[in-house]
Every structure is written in C-alpha cells, then in structure tokens.
Amino acid sequence: MNTASPAGAMQPYALTLDRFIEHAAKWHGAVEVVTGGGAGARTSYSALRDRSNRLSGAFRALGLEPGDNLAVLAWNSQAHMECWYGAVGIGIVCHTLNPRLSPAHLAEMIGQAANRVLVISPDLTPLAEALIALCPTLEHVVVLEEPGAEVSLPSRGRVVAWRYEDLLRDLGQDADWGGFDENAPAGLCFTSGTTGAPKGVTYTHRSNYLHTVHQLQADAAGLGARDSLLIAVPMFHANGWGLPFAGPAVGAKLVLPGRHQDGPSLAGLINAEGVTVAAGVSTVWLGLVDHLDRTGEQVPSLQRIMLGGSPTPQALLDRLEQRLGVKVQTSWGMTELSPLGAVTPASASVRKASQSGRPPIGVDLLLTDADGAPLPRQRGHEGRLRVRGAAVIERYFGYDEPAVDADGWFDTGDLAVIDDEGNLSITGRAKDLIKSGGEWINPVEIEAIIGALPEVALVAVVARAHAKWGERPILVIQPRKGAEIADQALLDILRARVAPWWLPDAIVRVAAMPLATTGKIDKARLRAEHG
Amino acid sequence: MNTASPAGAMQPYALTLDRFIEHAAKWHGAVEVVTGGGAGARTSYSALRDRSNRLSGAFRALGLEPGDNLAVLAWNSQAHMECWYGAVGIGIVCHTLNPRLSPAHLAEMIGQAANRVLVISPDLTPLAEALIALCPTLEHVVVLEEPGAEVSLPSRGRVVAWRYEDLLRDLGQDADWGGFDENAPAGLCFTSGTTGAPKGVTYTHRSNYLHTVHQLQADAAGLGARDSLLIAVPMFHANGWGLPFAGPAVGAKLVLPGRHQDGPSLAGLINAEGVTVAAGVSTVWLGLVDHLDRTGEQVPSLQRIMLGGSPTPQALLDRLEQRLGVKVQTSWGMTELSPLGAVTPASASVRKASQSGRPPIGVDLLLTDADGAPLPRQRGHEGRLRVRGAAVIERYFGYDEPAVDADGWFDTGDLAVIDDEGNLSITGRAKDLIKSGGEWINPVEIEAIIGALPEVALVAVVARAHAKWGERPILVIQPRKGAEIADQALLDILRARVAPWWLPDAIVRVAAMPLATTGKIDKARLRAEHG
Asked: At A192, is the pLDDT very low, low, confident or very high (cuts 50, 70, 90)?
C-alpha cells in the first residue's frame, strides 16, 4: 500500500435493526401496516416508527437496559411490531415466546432469560397469570391492545400490570436509536422442541440485518414496495421468518393476522388488503384452500405463497397453485438459521414439493457422513446436512460449548440430497428414521408418496415399538374433506414404490392431525397416541 | 443481561468479495460467463473461480501483497473479472482505470496508487507503452487475451511483459481466499473528472458486499438465476455498477461485451445470449435503438434496462420502452456511492425520465441549503443533495480531511427535489447552473423540455460568457437520425415553458455529441467549443 497517503475510507454504517423501520418511515412513510381481528386496525410506517420510538423511552422507564431481555408472548400485530422496534432500537433483546407452549415450558424459558418485563396479547391474560405465579423474575406485565380483543389486566398483585396504551402515554419518550455495536444481541428465540429439548438461539443485530438483505433478493423473498405482504407465520417463530424486517426494508405493505389464522379470516384479509405475497406453514394454507373450496371465494390479488416449516405434500402444493392461482415457493429453514437455509425461486419451472431450492448468498451447505466427515461426492448422495453462514448459530443461549464442529459447521440433524443443479431435498431427520430388523426405513419417502394423492390432506409416518423387529412404521393420514381412499388402495400404491418391509403395519385415519405449537405435525404426540 | 450464562452467538461471517464467486461456483457452477468480440468466448462460474484462484498465486509471485494496488486498464471481459476476483480474494486492491483517459491523467493516477503491476486489454498496448514511459513505479505489464484481439506485448525494455495465459500457466497457484478484515480496501476508482479534478474513491470489501446485497432487492437490480445480464457499463466505471458482484451472488448468466459497445455488437450479443436485463448509460442504448431501427431487428429476450450515469431525455426513454418492448429503470448514482443512490422499480407505473426513484435500504438522502443546513421541508423543495450510507465515501484516497460534513453527510454537488412519495429528481448540478444578470438558469430544466421531443436524440445546455449578462445559455442538440426541427420551433416550445430570459442565445446542431470517458455528455468540451 502507498503508505505516503491515507488509503481513503467509506462511511461507517452499523448493521442495526432500527435501520429498517427508519428507512420505511422516511421513504415509504404512508405505507400501511394492517392488523386483522375484530374491525381491524391500520397504521402507517411513519406512525409505527414514532410510536416505537416513544415506546423505547417507556421500556427504559421500566428499568430495561441494553442487553436485557424483554419477554414478548403475542400474536402478529402492530403493537407486537412496535415492541420489537422499540426494544431493539435501544439495544434491548426481544425474547419471543410461543403462546401455545405450556406454562411450565414458558416459565423455564423466562427463567433462563431472566425476564423482568413480559408483554402479552390481550387474550393471553390467563396464561400471563399462570406465568406470574411460576416466574419470580417478572416485575411488569404489559397487555397489548389488539383489534377485536378485550383487555383485562392480570389480577395477581406481585407484578405491576400495564395497559399498553397507558404505558405509552404515561412513560413514552422519544429515544435515540442505534449507536451500539452491530454484534449486540437483538433477539432470543427458543427452538420448538419438536426435535429435542428447547434451546435458545440468540440473534444479533448484524445477523438479522444480513439475513434480511440476503433474503430480499429476487429469487428468495423478492419483496418490493408494490407488494402487500401477509405474515401468517407467527412472529415468535424464528422472527416471523425475518419478514417484519424485510417488509419495512423495501416499503411493502404489511398485513398481520392477529391470532386469527383460520381460512375465513385469512381469505377476508387477503381480499380486503390486496395481499400479493403470503408466508406461512402448509397447514395454514390447507385451511385457506378448504375454506375457498367450501365457499367458492377467490383470492385474485394473491400471486405467491412462501411455504416453510415442514415438508409439504405434493398434492397440497399442486392444489394451492391451481386453486389459488399462485406460485408456491418451497423452502427449508430452522430457528438456528434465522431461519432461511434454502428456497425455490418463484420463477422456477419445476415445482416439486420435495425440493427446497438453493441456498441464497450468505448460506453454505455441506453433506457429511454420520461421523461428520464430508461426503466425497456432494451431489446426488444422501448425507447429514451441515450449515455455515452469516445468520447461522454458533453457540446456544446459556451454553459454553459451541454448536458447531471444528470447521465451524452447524449439524442440522437433517438428512438431505443435493442435485446436480444445487437444489436441496430434505430426505429425513436422522432421529425420525425407523429401525426395523436392523434396517432403516425413512418416513419422509413414504410420506411423499402418500402426500401426493389428491385424497390425502396431511400424512405422517411414525414408529411403533415391535417385539421382534424393534420398530415398525405406522401410517397416519388426515383425508381431504369429503374424499375417501381405502387401506388396500394405499398399500397397493406403496407396494409399487417401496420395499415390502417398508409397508406400514397399520393405517390410522384422523379428522385433524395434531399440530405442534409452530403448526408442524406433532410427531411426538402421534407416536404417543398411535405408536 | 443474564450474566450467569453466555448470551449465545451467531457464526462469524466476514463480508468479503470472494464470497460471491465462491457461491456462484458452488451453487451455479455451470452458469456461463460470455465475452463478446471476434468469435466470442465462454466459460462457467466454476471455471472462472478456479482460474481466478490460481491467478491469486500468480499475483503473489509478482510480489503483490495484501493492501497493494493492482492497476487494471481493460474492457469488460472474462479475464478482467478473473483479475478482480484473483486480486481481491487475497486482499489486493483493484485499481480500475479508464482507457479513454489521456496517458498523462492515467499516469497521475498510477503514480498516486504506486502501482507496480499493470493489467491491460490486448488492444491497449500502445497506451501501455506510453504509460511505461510516464510511470516509474511500473515493473510488470500483463496483457490480457480477449476474443477477436491480437496480443502484442509492449516493446519497452524496462518492465517485464506477460501474456496473461503464460502468467497463469507459469506462476498460477491455488491460494486461500479471505481470512482478512472485511474493512480492508478492495477497489480504487478515480472519479471521472467531468465535475472537478479526479479523486480516488477507495471501496472496501464490506462496502462493496453491502452495496451488492442492498442492490439485489427486487425493486433495484432484482436479478435472479434465470437472468442473463449484459453488463454494458464499463467495469472501470464505479465497479461496473457493482454488477460483476451482483451477478455471481445470485447465479445470473453474465454477458460482457468486451470493447464493443456499438449497436450491432450489442444487438448480436443480446440475441445470441438471451439477455434479459442490460445495464448501461443512455448513449449506449441510443446506439442500440438506432441500429434496430435501421435493420428492423428485434431483441425479444430483453425485458429490462437499468439506466444510469446521466439524465436521460424522456423521448429516448419512451423510444427504448416502445421499440425494445422493455421496462427502463432510471437511477441516480456516483462513483462516491459505489454507485447506487436511487433507482426506479421495474414495476413502477409512472416512468418519468426526470425521476430517479427512491434510495434503497442502506442509503439515506438529505436536502440542504447552500450552507449545508437541512431544509426545514424535505419534500417538494429543491436543495443540495447530501448522502449517507453503507457504501458512501467518507474520505478520498490520499486525503487527510474527510469528504463528509460534521454529521457524516457527503455533499454530492447535485441539486434535487424529492416528491411526497420519496422519489428523487436531480434538478441540476450546482456548478452547471448558469448565472445570467445575477439570476440562475438551470440547464437541466431546459434539457428536459427539449429532450422530450421525438426529433431530438441528445441535448445539452451550456454557458457562454457574455459581456453584459455574465453568462448566457447555449442549446446544443444532436437531432435524431433523419429527423429535423427548426430553431423557431425549438424556441416556441421553450417560450411556452420557461421565462423569456432563459431562452438560449444560440442553437447549435452536432452530428454526434462529444462524450466524456464514461459515456456522459462532455459539457466541458461543449463549453470550450461552443461556449
């Protein structure tokens, strides 16, 4: 380098999350953020930014300091978003909690995070009362106001209970946002526990910022200022897939469904708000398409669905595309990945439910054997999936040891194949495999075959203990409404496609698949009930 | 924070430019990079990555070390891209030079950068010989091989001259990329000098990485793996607008025109390579559309043109959209901004040539008065435009003093208005304003009116010294081929739209507007010849 003269410099620019809402307020200030429920509610990015900023002052007045965790137990709403930006703007960490978990589980997480302030949706007051009894660290409970829900404050005496609007009015004060290290923590989210004991994932400002801008590229979320985005994935589910950051970053209109994720509510919101892009797990879209079939309604504004959370039956994907007239983007992600790991472009010509697309820039994938050694051939061979990237976990909350191997790779526990074009297919979870007579049976392969049948809405294969074989597969199906298919027909279809000893020992029909708290099929419960 | 336990962590991920080509090679390895000229040449991202990596070893063997500047004087080609990635992968800084500058100017820049190695396109050997005579720091000259051009080595004895393929074969060696600070310099680019003395802008890995991912969002470059991208903006012009990074980041096919930017060459490349998106300045597209009109050819694959570099006449924008059947994205940028400052989404319904769209996330704009005080009303009022952001200059190369004000804003020297929706219109350059009788005349306003006429291909208004009034405006037009418009008609049109004293004192017709080295209209030369 020419040491005789300074090399020149670019401006400092910290990758902090306040950037997104500040950008939206300044350049897309009139764009709406709509909350469903009751008569609904709407605000603008400009107003939401100003309220969030005053909320920062209120959080400070409650004694929260940079690095403290704020517990938020709430549905997707304007107030919930204000809490996020109000907290992270001054370095407070948003600890998002899933209202569908048991009080004991939630209390464990609140204890680990040492939460002193809990924010709840108005219908969750009974749950909050249970938590107050279980959580000695709690000092304040703030009850949000959401359209169509009565506010009732928790009646326990030990904590101070606030109506959200009172808090904002009485303690709200403009605050200076940002100015801290971009590597400061911004979020805390415990894994769903469907695949092991819940563990906390700490997102940083930098990791969430980079996840957002990587996600925004055309082949991934591809959002623009002319989009109306329905975030039907809960904000407590891996940051709502990062969409409460991505929407403001580009000035897309946001549509938040509150606690109402049923078909009629979603259809109503989509049509009232001209939704163009919607994100959520497949069970949510199954409810929507069933409702539309029942009523004959259409959703003409909807162009695209971003699907994630769990494998989707091919028949459901085809049905969504045909009935809704949309493109479905399959994807693969995890709480530990913030969550995006791979996604199919909306423009893809092949639309296979089993494929999750390619990783975006910022994510790298590696297939290994069971011992963690890289497979010599990374294309066309099944292996254990490991991940590295800008928004991938290195160490769980409260743990000393890293969650990555010596080369920095995080082991997902998933089995996967990557094809010659780089497309990822998740082929199973290592721990879901069924060992029968010393040989492995992969439930995902059977589920893909049965899930492709038009008569089947949802499908799961779980293990049942067997004296002789160790484990045997059981097929559980939720038939599509009004459709029928005989056991023999199911077995005949399988017989043509899988080895004889893969055929299930029993076929169980359920009216509604049990769902875990994140909307995924609850295989643990299926195993307990039918295994 | 719960200090009893570690807060958890995300993985480290340095924002370095090798990420882009590594990602392309791994996930879009078979996607082509095509170079025009002669019989053309094509490679894949995978091969380009491997050759770039071996080139790193060759650069090291020439004595280049991290932080050293490598001078590159070349047209857009595969070999040019290999030099970029081969250099930045090991921390060498790419100093891009414009072959259309005079040897004296280039020598000044090479001297400032203390370049010891110069890379040139094969047709630039005479220029290299002039530079060898002028630049005592030069030790090696590497002559690239490009399709359709003969390689002749410079004959001067003092430097060691290399054929590119010989260098790669004899000294090439695989290198470890990355592993340095993301704030390390990656590029050096001197401003065009159309608006003052050339000054060097130092890009860092981090600023270029962030510029790329900010630019990739759907409303800006919006590129995807199914795109074929023609980079008709020179790579020495503010990193080719960052597109040699953005293309690999999403796996878009790249089409590089070599030194041939004429209409027939571009039309041929677009059709042969199925180009969907093309980027360049308006004079380049004027050449294309004139050629198509002449031959009756079509360019059916082309969907979108990203336009930048200078204001575009409305008539040209309309003509491009209609004749080519494309969407034109207007934009505003500067070398000091890496370069993107604002851009119109391809989906925008209003397509006004005078509008440059909104800033993307990562860029912020401020309008001030002449003293730098923020205008109290930022919408609907003209002011001086200042910029802050993740890829905006803080200090020029070789300067001690910052290029920003006390609040961190860079003064662009442009005049601008921002409308209620946040759309930027550049209304003039402070230094181009014409002062007549103590009052300001804004050339851009007159140019917009005349530029909207279908008879006019290009237009410029410059000042002529005047004994009584100080300065008076002169109108210079390049009529569209075969079109005519009388002086009286031009004056009548202006008379209806501007104040009487804004009417030009003279109207000059030129067959071809003089262009500066970046393809912008050379107002300095117009002033010298007609002012």
From this structure: low
- Among B202, B216, B250, beta carbon nearest to A8: B202
Cβ–Cβ below 8 Å for A10 and B188: no
Chain B residues in contact with A246 by the CB 8 A cut-off are none
Return d(Cα B29, Cα B46) in angstroms, integer. 4
**β-strand pairing of B277-280 with B228-231:** parallel
Q: Is the CB of residue B9 less than 8 Å away from at least one CB of chain A?
A: yes
- Tens-digit pLDDT profile for residues B392-412: 999 999 999 999 999 999 999
Average pLDDT on B297-311 reads: 91
Do the bridges between strand A304-307 and strand A327-329 make them parallel or antiparallel, or are there none, so unpaired?
A: parallel
Chain A residues touching B6 at Cβ < 8 A: 395, 397-400
Chain A contact set for B29 (CB, 8 A): 422
- pTM of the model as a whole: 0.90
How high is the pLDDT of residue B4? 42
Contact A394 B223 (CB under 8 A): no
pLDDT tens profile A399-446: 999 999 999 999 999 999 999 999 999 988 877 888 887 777 888 889
How far is it, in rounded angstroms, from Cα A491 to Cα A449? 11
User: A225 CB near a chain B CB, below 8 Å?
Assistant: yes
**Who has greater pLDDT, B5 or B72?**
B72
Q: Is B46 on the interface with A (CB under 8 A)?
A: no
Q: Are B305 and B328 in contact (CB under 8 A)?
A: yes
Question: What's the pLDDT tens digit per position in A95-136?
Answer: 999 998 889 989 999 999 999 999 999 999 999 999 999 999
Chain A residues closer than 8 Å to B213 by CB? 210, 213-214, 216-217, 361-362
E strand or H helix at B191: none
CB B281 within 8 A of CB B519: yes
Smallest Cα–Cα separation from B192: which of B201, B202, B182, B180? B201
Known catalytic residue: A191?
Answer: yes
Statement: residue A356 has pLDDT above 90: yes
**Which is nearest to A151 in space by CA: A181, A119, A192, A199?**
A119
Cβ atoms of A221 and B213 within 8 Å: the answer is no
CB contact under 8 A, A218 and B223: yes
Q: Which tokens hold the place of B204? A: 């860092």
What are the residues whose beta carbons fall under 8 Å from the beta carbon of A268, sequence distance 6 or more? Answer: A36
Query: Which residues does B408 contact at the CB level (< 8 Å), separation at least 6?
Result: A11, A12, B388, B394
The alpha carbon of residue B68 is apart from the nearest alpha carbon of chain A, in Å, by 4
Give me the interface pTM, i.e. the ipTM: 0.90
Whether A42 contacts A32, CB under 8 Å: yes
Tokens coding B321: 């959209």
Tokens 């415990």 sit on residue = A190
DSSP B455: T
Q: Chain A within 8 Å of B213 (Cβ-Cβ)?
A: yes
Residues of B in contact with A10 (CB under 8 A): 202-204, 206-207, 338, 390-394
In the numeric block, which tokens belong to residue A320? 């969504």
pLDDT in tens, B130-149: 999 999 999 999 999 999 99
Residue whose C-alpha is closest to residue A388's, from A411, A370, A414, A355: A411
Which amino acid belongs to residue A62?
A: L
At residue B445, does pLDDT exceed 90? Answer: no
String of DSSP letters for A170-231:
HH--------S-TTSEEEEEE--STTSS--EEEEEHHHHHHHHHHHTBTTTT---TT-EEEE
- Compare all CA atoms of chain B with the CA of A390 and give the residue at the minimum distance: B13
Q: Which of B19, B43, B40, B14 is nearest to B29 (CA)?
A: B43
Could B8 and A396 be called an inter-chain contact, meaning their C-beta atoms sit closer than 8 Å? yes
Beta bridge partners of A428: A415
